[in-house]
Amino acid sequence: MKTRILITGLAFATAISFGQKKEIKKAEKAIKSNEYTEALNYLSEAEPMLSTVDNDMKAQFYAARGQALLGSGGSDFKKLKGAADAFSTAISLDPKIEEQLIDPLQNLRAALINGAIKDQNAQQYKMATDKLYTSYMVTKKDTSDLYFAAGNAVNGQDYDTALKYYQMLLDLNYSGATVEYVATNKTTGEVEAFDSEKLRDFAIKSGEFIKPESKVTKSRKGEILRNMTLIYIEKGDTEKAKSLIETARAENPDDVFLMRADADMSYKMGDNKRYNELMEKIVATDPENPELYFNLGISNDQLNNKEKALEYYNKALELRPEYEGALINIAALKLSGEDEIVEEMNSLGNSAADNKRYDELKKIRENSYKDALPYLEKANAINPSNQNVLKYLMNIYSQIGEDAKYKAVKAKLEALESKN
Protein backbone atom coordinates (compact mmCIF):
# COMPACT_ATOMS: atom_id res chain seq x y z
CA MET A 1 0.00 0.00 0.00
CA LYS A 2 2.77 2.41 0.94
CA THR A 3 4.59 1.68 -2.34
CA ARG A 4 1.48 2.37 -4.39
CA ILE A 5 0.87 5.67 -2.60
CA LEU A 6 4.49 6.69 -3.25
CA ILE A 7 4.22 5.87 -6.95
CA THR A 8 0.96 7.80 -7.21
CA GLY A 9 2.56 10.77 -5.49
CA LEU A 10 5.46 10.75 -7.92
CA ALA A 11 3.09 10.62 -10.84
CA PHE A 12 1.16 13.57 -9.40
CA ALA A 13 4.37 15.60 -9.00
CA THR A 14 5.38 14.80 -12.57
CA ALA A 15 1.97 15.94 -13.81
CA ILE A 16 2.32 19.23 -11.94
CA SER A 17 5.83 19.70 -13.31
CA PHE A 18 4.62 19.04 -16.84
CA GLY A 19 1.71 21.44 -16.35
CA GLN A 20 4.01 24.21 -15.12
CA LYS A 21 6.41 23.68 -18.00
CA LYS A 22 3.49 23.96 -20.39
CA GLU A 23 2.36 27.27 -18.83
CA ILE A 24 5.90 28.65 -18.96
CA LYS A 25 6.18 27.70 -22.64
CA LYS A 26 2.88 29.44 -23.31
CA ALA A 27 4.19 32.51 -21.53
CA GLU A 28 7.41 32.49 -23.57
CA LYS A 29 5.39 32.20 -26.78
CA ALA A 30 3.16 35.11 -25.69
CA ILE A 31 6.27 37.21 -24.95
CA LYS A 32 7.56 36.62 -28.49
CA SER A 33 4.21 37.95 -29.76
CA ASN A 34 4.44 40.96 -27.41
CA GLU A 35 1.39 39.70 -25.48
CA TYR A 36 2.87 40.57 -22.11
CA THR A 37 -0.35 40.62 -20.05
CA GLU A 38 -1.24 37.19 -21.40
CA ALA A 39 2.25 35.94 -20.53
CA LEU A 40 1.90 37.21 -16.95
CA ASN A 41 -1.45 35.40 -16.65
CA TYR A 42 0.15 32.11 -17.70
CA LEU A 43 2.96 32.63 -15.21
CA SER A 44 0.46 33.37 -12.42
CA GLU A 45 -1.12 29.97 -13.10
CA ALA A 46 2.26 28.24 -12.88
CA GLU A 47 3.49 30.08 -9.76
CA PRO A 48 1.54 28.31 -6.94
CA MET A 49 3.42 25.02 -7.39
CA LEU A 50 6.81 26.53 -8.23
CA SER A 51 8.42 25.04 -5.13
CA THR A 52 7.96 21.50 -6.55
CA VAL A 53 10.16 21.96 -9.65
CA ASP A 54 13.92 22.02 -10.16
CA ASN A 55 16.07 25.15 -10.33
CA ASP A 56 16.36 25.11 -14.12
CA MET A 57 12.59 25.37 -14.53
CA LYS A 58 12.38 28.00 -11.78
CA ALA A 59 15.04 30.00 -13.63
CA GLN A 60 12.97 29.76 -16.83
CA PHE A 61 9.92 30.96 -14.92
CA TYR A 62 11.68 34.03 -13.50
CA ALA A 63 13.37 34.82 -16.81
CA ALA A 64 9.97 34.81 -18.50
CA ARG A 65 8.46 36.95 -15.74
CA GLY A 66 11.27 39.47 -16.09
CA GLN A 67 10.75 39.74 -19.84
CA ALA A 68 6.96 40.08 -19.47
CA LEU A 69 7.29 42.81 -16.84
CA LEU A 70 9.95 44.60 -18.89
CA GLY A 71 7.83 44.43 -22.03
CA SER A 72 4.77 45.84 -20.29
CA GLY A 73 6.67 48.21 -18.02
CA GLY A 74 7.42 51.22 -20.22
CA SER A 75 8.64 53.84 -17.73
CA ASP A 76 6.76 52.28 -14.77
CA PHE A 77 9.50 51.86 -12.17
CA LYS A 78 7.47 49.34 -10.16
CA LYS A 79 7.36 46.98 -13.16
CA LEU A 80 10.97 47.66 -14.11
CA LYS A 81 12.00 46.89 -10.53
CA GLY A 82 9.94 43.69 -10.69
CA ALA A 83 11.70 42.75 -13.93
CA ALA A 84 15.10 43.41 -12.36
CA ASP A 85 14.25 41.24 -9.33
CA ALA A 86 12.98 38.45 -11.58
CA PHE A 87 16.09 38.48 -13.79
CA SER A 88 18.33 38.54 -10.73
CA THR A 89 16.52 35.52 -9.25
CA ALA A 90 16.74 33.65 -12.56
CA ILE A 91 20.50 34.23 -12.80
CA SER A 92 21.04 33.18 -9.18
CA LEU A 93 19.18 29.90 -9.87
CA ASP A 94 20.94 29.19 -13.16
CA PRO A 95 23.95 31.42 -14.00
CA LYS A 96 24.02 30.07 -17.57
CA ILE A 97 20.66 31.70 -18.31
CA GLU A 98 22.30 35.13 -18.28
CA GLU A 99 23.60 34.44 -21.80
CA GLN A 100 19.98 34.04 -22.99
CA LEU A 101 19.03 37.33 -21.35
CA ILE A 102 21.69 39.60 -22.86
CA ASP A 103 19.22 41.67 -24.91
CA PRO A 104 16.50 41.93 -22.21
CA LEU A 105 19.11 42.91 -19.63
CA GLN A 106 20.50 45.62 -21.94
CA ASN A 107 16.97 46.92 -22.59
CA LEU A 108 16.18 46.93 -18.88
CA ARG A 109 19.36 48.81 -18.04
CA ALA A 110 18.68 51.34 -20.81
CA ALA A 111 15.13 51.93 -19.51
CA LEU A 112 16.35 52.39 -15.93
CA ILE A 113 19.29 54.65 -16.83
CA ASN A 114 17.29 56.82 -19.23
CA GLY A 115 14.63 57.17 -16.55
CA ALA A 116 17.28 58.06 -13.98
CA ILE A 117 18.70 60.78 -16.27
CA LYS A 118 15.24 62.35 -16.61
CA ASP A 119 14.72 62.17 -12.85
CA GLN A 120 18.12 63.70 -12.20
CA ASN A 121 17.40 66.58 -14.59
CA ALA A 122 14.09 67.13 -12.77
CA GLN A 123 15.97 67.04 -9.42
CA GLN A 124 14.08 63.87 -8.44
CA TYR A 125 17.24 62.47 -6.91
CA LYS A 126 15.64 59.75 -4.77
CA MET A 127 14.01 58.13 -7.80
CA ALA A 128 17.20 58.49 -9.87
CA THR A 129 19.16 56.82 -7.07
CA ASP A 130 16.71 53.91 -6.84
CA LYS A 131 16.71 53.30 -10.60
CA LEU A 132 20.49 53.31 -10.88
CA TYR A 133 20.89 51.03 -7.86
CA THR A 134 18.28 48.65 -9.33
CA SER A 135 20.23 48.59 -12.60
CA TYR A 136 23.39 47.66 -10.70
CA MET A 137 21.75 44.96 -8.59
CA VAL A 138 20.49 42.87 -11.54
CA THR A 139 23.91 41.36 -12.31
CA LYS A 140 26.15 43.41 -9.96
CA LYS A 141 28.56 43.92 -12.85
CA ASP A 142 27.83 47.49 -13.97
CA THR A 143 29.56 49.21 -11.07
CA SER A 144 29.30 52.60 -12.74
CA ASP A 145 25.54 52.42 -12.04
CA LEU A 146 26.33 52.11 -8.34
CA TYR A 147 28.73 55.06 -8.56
CA PHE A 148 26.11 57.31 -10.17
CA ALA A 149 23.47 56.07 -7.71
CA ALA A 150 25.72 57.29 -4.88
CA GLY A 151 26.16 60.65 -6.62
CA ASN A 152 22.40 61.14 -6.87
CA ALA A 153 22.04 60.19 -3.22
CA VAL A 154 24.52 62.98 -2.40
CA ASN A 155 22.53 65.45 -4.52
CA GLY A 156 19.37 64.40 -2.67
CA GLN A 157 21.17 64.82 0.68
CA ASP A 158 20.54 61.15 1.49
CA TYR A 159 23.98 60.88 3.02
CA ASP A 160 23.54 57.50 4.71
CA THR A 161 22.65 55.88 1.38
CA ALA A 162 25.52 57.66 -0.37
CA LEU A 163 28.00 56.42 2.24
CA LYS A 164 26.63 52.89 1.95
CA TYR A 165 27.04 52.84 -1.84
CA TYR A 166 30.46 54.50 -1.77
CA GLN A 167 31.64 51.93 0.78
CA MET A 168 30.33 49.15 -1.45
CA LEU A 169 32.40 50.59 -4.31
CA LEU A 170 35.53 50.73 -2.15
CA ASP A 171 34.95 47.14 -1.00
CA LEU A 172 34.74 46.13 -4.68
CA ASN A 173 38.03 48.00 -5.29
CA TYR A 174 36.22 50.15 -7.84
CA SER A 175 38.29 52.80 -9.55
CA GLY A 176 36.11 53.77 -12.51
CA ALA A 177 39.24 53.97 -14.68
CA THR A 178 38.55 52.66 -18.18
CA VAL A 179 40.52 52.19 -21.37
CA GLU A 180 39.42 54.48 -24.19
CA TYR A 181 40.33 53.47 -27.76
CA VAL A 182 40.95 56.48 -29.98
CA ALA A 183 42.31 57.34 -33.43
CA THR A 184 42.73 60.47 -35.53
CA ASN A 185 40.33 61.15 -38.40
CA LYS A 186 42.48 61.80 -41.49
CA THR A 187 39.92 64.18 -43.00
CA THR A 188 39.12 66.36 -40.00
CA GLY A 189 42.23 65.86 -37.89
CA GLU A 190 39.98 65.27 -34.86
CA VAL A 191 40.72 62.54 -32.31
CA GLU A 192 37.68 60.24 -32.08
CA ALA A 193 36.81 57.50 -29.56
CA PHE A 194 35.53 54.01 -30.43
CA ASP A 195 33.37 51.63 -28.42
CA SER A 196 35.96 48.84 -28.62
CA GLU A 197 39.49 48.08 -29.69
CA LYS A 198 38.20 45.98 -32.60
CA LEU A 199 36.11 48.85 -33.99
CA ARG A 200 39.08 51.21 -33.67
CA ASP A 201 41.38 48.75 -35.46
CA PHE A 202 38.78 48.25 -38.21
CA ALA A 203 38.68 52.03 -38.72
CA ILE A 204 42.48 52.09 -39.03
CA LYS A 205 42.38 49.30 -41.65
CA SER A 206 39.79 51.25 -43.62
CA GLY A 207 42.39 53.97 -44.14
CA GLU A 208 40.11 56.71 -42.80
CA PHE A 209 41.88 56.92 -39.43
CA ILE A 210 45.49 57.07 -38.26
CA LYS A 211 47.45 57.17 -34.97
CA PRO A 212 45.65 54.50 -32.92
CA GLU A 213 46.01 55.08 -29.17
CA SER A 214 44.70 53.63 -25.93
CA LYS A 215 43.99 56.13 -23.15
CA VAL A 216 43.21 55.25 -19.55
CA THR A 217 40.64 57.59 -17.97
CA LYS A 218 41.21 58.99 -14.49
CA SER A 219 40.39 56.90 -11.44
CA ARG A 220 37.29 57.95 -9.50
CA LYS A 221 38.57 56.57 -6.21
CA GLY A 222 39.93 59.93 -5.06
CA GLU A 223 36.59 61.59 -5.80
CA ILE A 224 34.74 58.87 -3.86
CA LEU A 225 36.97 59.33 -0.81
CA ARG A 226 36.61 63.11 -1.10
CA ASN A 227 32.81 62.86 -1.15
CA MET A 228 32.82 60.45 1.79
CA THR A 229 35.03 62.84 3.75
CA LEU A 230 32.71 65.79 3.09
CA ILE A 231 29.67 63.71 4.07
CA TYR A 232 31.26 62.76 7.40
CA ILE A 233 32.01 66.44 8.01
CA GLU A 234 28.42 67.35 7.13
CA LYS A 235 27.21 64.72 9.59
CA GLY A 236 29.49 66.14 12.27
CA ASP A 237 31.79 63.12 12.40
CA THR A 238 35.06 65.02 11.98
CA GLU A 239 37.18 62.24 13.49
CA LYS A 240 35.98 59.75 10.89
CA ALA A 241 36.57 62.33 8.15
CA LYS A 242 40.13 63.01 9.33
CA SER A 243 40.92 59.32 9.66
CA LEU A 244 39.59 58.56 6.18
CA ILE A 245 41.46 61.37 4.46
CA GLU A 246 44.73 60.67 6.30
CA THR A 247 44.68 57.02 5.24
CA ALA A 248 43.71 57.86 1.68
CA ARG A 249 46.35 60.58 1.25
CA ALA A 250 49.05 58.37 2.72
CA GLU A 251 48.29 55.89 -0.07
CA ASN A 252 47.97 58.54 -2.82
CA PRO A 253 49.73 61.77 -1.74
CA ASP A 254 49.59 63.31 -5.23
CA ASP A 255 45.93 62.55 -5.96
CA VAL A 256 44.32 65.93 -6.72
CA PHE A 257 40.83 64.83 -5.69
CA LEU A 258 42.18 63.77 -2.30
CA MET A 259 44.03 67.06 -1.96
CA ARG A 260 40.72 68.82 -2.65
CA ALA A 261 39.03 66.64 -0.02
CA ASP A 262 41.73 67.54 2.48
CA ALA A 263 41.43 71.22 1.55
CA ASP A 264 37.64 71.19 1.80
CA MET A 265 37.84 69.47 5.17
CA SER A 266 40.35 72.05 6.42
CA TYR A 267 38.12 74.88 5.20
CA LYS A 268 34.99 73.45 6.85
CA MET A 269 36.91 72.97 10.09
CA GLY A 270 38.13 76.59 10.02
CA ASP A 271 41.79 75.79 9.30
CA ASN A 272 42.23 78.39 6.56
CA LYS A 273 46.01 78.31 6.76
CA ARG A 274 46.16 74.62 5.88
CA TYR A 275 43.45 75.18 3.27
CA ASN A 276 45.60 77.81 1.56
CA GLU A 277 48.69 75.57 1.59
CA LEU A 278 46.78 72.72 -0.03
CA MET A 279 45.03 74.97 -2.55
CA GLU A 280 48.37 76.38 -3.69
CA LYS A 281 49.46 72.83 -4.53
CA ILE A 282 46.17 72.15 -6.30
CA VAL A 283 46.46 75.34 -8.37
CA ALA A 284 49.88 74.17 -9.53
CA THR A 285 48.23 71.08 -11.05
CA ASP A 286 45.53 73.10 -12.84
CA PRO A 287 46.77 76.69 -13.28
CA GLU A 288 44.08 77.62 -15.82
CA ASN A 289 41.14 76.87 -13.50
CA PRO A 290 39.45 80.14 -12.38
CA GLU A 291 37.43 78.38 -9.65
CA LEU A 292 40.60 77.49 -7.78
CA TYR A 293 41.80 81.10 -7.72
CA PHE A 294 38.35 82.29 -6.68
CA ASN A 295 38.32 79.87 -3.73
CA LEU A 296 41.80 81.00 -2.72
CA GLY A 297 40.55 84.57 -2.85
CA ILE A 298 37.75 83.74 -0.42
CA SER A 299 40.01 81.96 2.08
CA ASN A 300 42.61 84.74 2.04
CA ASP A 301 39.85 87.31 2.49
CA GLN A 302 38.70 85.39 5.58
CA LEU A 303 42.29 85.35 6.85
CA ASN A 304 42.31 89.14 6.35
CA ASN A 305 44.96 88.85 3.64
CA LYS A 306 43.17 91.47 1.54
CA GLU A 307 45.94 92.08 -1.00
CA LYS A 308 46.42 88.38 -1.60
CA ALA A 309 42.67 87.88 -1.90
CA LEU A 310 42.47 90.66 -4.49
CA GLU A 311 45.34 89.10 -6.42
CA TYR A 312 43.51 85.74 -6.63
CA TYR A 313 40.18 87.32 -7.57
CA ASN A 314 41.88 89.25 -10.37
CA LYS A 315 43.53 86.05 -11.59
CA ALA A 316 40.12 84.36 -11.68
CA LEU A 317 38.80 87.30 -13.74
CA GLU A 318 41.78 87.13 -16.06
CA LEU A 319 40.87 83.52 -16.85
CA ARG A 320 37.11 84.18 -16.92
CA PRO A 321 36.28 87.85 -17.57
CA GLU A 322 32.55 87.28 -17.00
CA TYR A 323 33.06 85.71 -13.54
CA GLU A 324 30.21 87.34 -11.60
CA GLY A 325 31.30 86.05 -8.18
CA ALA A 326 34.83 87.42 -8.59
CA LEU A 327 33.50 90.83 -9.69
CA ILE A 328 31.21 91.06 -6.67
CA ASN A 329 33.90 89.94 -4.22
CA ILE A 330 36.41 92.47 -5.57
CA ALA A 331 33.83 95.21 -5.11
CA ALA A 332 33.12 93.98 -1.59
CA LEU A 333 36.85 94.03 -0.81
CA LYS A 334 37.16 97.61 -2.01
CA LEU A 335 34.21 98.59 0.19
CA SER A 336 35.30 96.50 3.19
CA GLY A 337 36.74 99.43 5.17
CA GLU A 338 33.58 101.55 4.93
CA ASP A 339 32.21 100.68 8.39
CA GLU A 340 35.42 101.79 10.11
CA ILE A 341 35.49 105.00 8.07
CA VAL A 342 31.87 105.86 8.93
CA GLU A 343 32.49 105.06 12.59
CA GLU A 344 35.48 107.40 12.71
CA MET A 345 33.62 110.13 10.84
CA ASN A 346 30.78 109.97 13.37
CA SER A 347 33.21 110.21 16.28
CA LEU A 348 34.82 113.46 15.14
CA GLY A 349 34.10 116.82 16.73
CA ASN A 350 33.94 120.31 15.24
CA SER A 351 37.55 121.43 15.61
CA ALA A 352 39.57 122.49 12.57
CA ALA A 353 41.64 119.30 12.83
CA ASP A 354 38.50 117.18 13.08
CA ASN A 355 36.93 118.89 10.09
CA LYS A 356 40.06 118.32 8.06
CA ARG A 357 40.13 114.64 9.05
CA TYR A 358 36.42 114.36 8.18
CA ASP A 359 37.06 115.68 4.67
CA GLU A 360 39.96 113.23 4.26
CA LEU A 361 37.79 110.28 5.30
CA LYS A 362 34.96 111.44 3.07
CA LYS A 363 37.35 111.50 0.10
CA ILE A 364 38.68 108.01 0.93
CA ARG A 365 35.11 106.73 1.14
CA GLU A 366 34.13 108.29 -2.20
CA ASN A 367 37.22 106.79 -3.86
CA SER A 368 36.35 103.35 -2.56
CA TYR A 369 32.87 103.74 -4.10
CA LYS A 370 34.38 104.77 -7.42
CA ASP A 371 36.84 101.86 -7.31
CA ALA A 372 34.07 99.32 -6.60
CA LEU A 373 31.51 100.76 -9.02
CA PRO A 374 32.89 99.35 -12.35
CA TYR A 375 32.95 95.81 -10.93
CA LEU A 376 29.37 96.05 -9.68
CA GLU A 377 28.14 97.57 -12.93
CA LYS A 378 29.74 94.74 -14.90
CA ALA A 379 28.27 92.15 -12.52
CA ASN A 380 24.86 93.76 -13.03
CA ALA A 381 25.30 93.62 -16.81
CA ILE A 382 26.08 89.89 -16.55
CA ASN A 383 23.20 89.14 -14.19
CA PRO A 384 20.60 91.95 -14.05
CA SER A 385 18.40 90.02 -11.60
CA ASN A 386 20.94 89.86 -8.75
CA GLN A 387 19.16 91.94 -6.11
CA ASN A 388 22.19 92.22 -3.80
CA VAL A 389 24.19 93.85 -6.57
CA LEU A 390 21.33 96.28 -7.26
CA LYS A 391 21.25 97.22 -3.56
CA TYR A 392 25.00 97.88 -3.61
CA LEU A 393 24.59 100.06 -6.71
CA MET A 394 21.69 102.00 -5.19
CA ASN A 395 23.73 102.82 -2.12
CA ILE A 396 26.75 103.96 -4.13
CA TYR A 397 24.76 106.05 -6.60
CA SER A 398 23.01 107.69 -3.66
CA GLN A 399 26.29 108.49 -1.90
CA ILE A 400 28.05 109.93 -4.97
CA GLY A 401 25.02 111.97 -6.11
CA GLU A 402 24.14 109.99 -9.25
CA ASP A 403 20.41 110.57 -8.80
CA ALA A 404 19.24 109.43 -12.25
CA LYS A 405 21.13 106.14 -11.96
CA TYR A 406 19.91 105.72 -8.40
CA LYS A 407 16.27 106.05 -9.52
CA ALA A 408 16.76 103.65 -12.45
CA VAL A 409 18.31 100.94 -10.25
CA LYS A 410 15.67 101.48 -7.57
CA ALA A 411 12.92 100.90 -10.16
CA LYS A 412 14.59 97.68 -11.36
CA LEU A 413 14.92 96.40 -7.80
CA GLU A 414 11.28 97.18 -6.96
CA ALA A 415 10.15 95.40 -10.13
CA LEU A 416 12.11 92.29 -9.22
CA GLU A 417 10.87 92.33 -5.61
CA SER A 418 7.24 92.60 -6.76
CA LYS A 419 7.63 89.35 -8.74
CA ASN A 420 8.73 87.40 -5.64
Automatic annotation (TrEMBL):
Keywords in alphabetical order: TPR repeat
Source species, domain of life: Bacteria
Record protein name field: Tetratricopeptide repeat protein
Cited Pfam families: TPR_1 (PF00515)
Species lineage: Bacteria, Pseudomonadati, Bacteroidota, Flavobacteriia, Flavobacteriales
InterPro entries, A to Z: TPR-like_helical_dom_sf, TPR_rpt
Gene3D superfamilies per UniProt: Tetratricopeptide repeat domain
Organism: Aequorivita marisscotiae
Intervals holding TPR repeats: 290-323
